[in-house]
Hints:
By secondary structure, the chain is an all-alpha fold. It has one helix at residues 2-42. Keywords: Cell membrane, Lipoprotein, Membrane, Palmitate, Signal.
Amino acid sequence: MKRLMALLLLALFSVGTLTACNTVAGAGKDVQKAGEKVEDAAK
């Protein structure tokens, strides 16, 4: 039973980590696009 709980917690942690990674990557792309718009407006 302890092994099952440990595996379940590990799986939940892994999914949370991967989701957070994708979210940060998406936010980085959004910031990059905004920076490009500001750069274009400055030209």
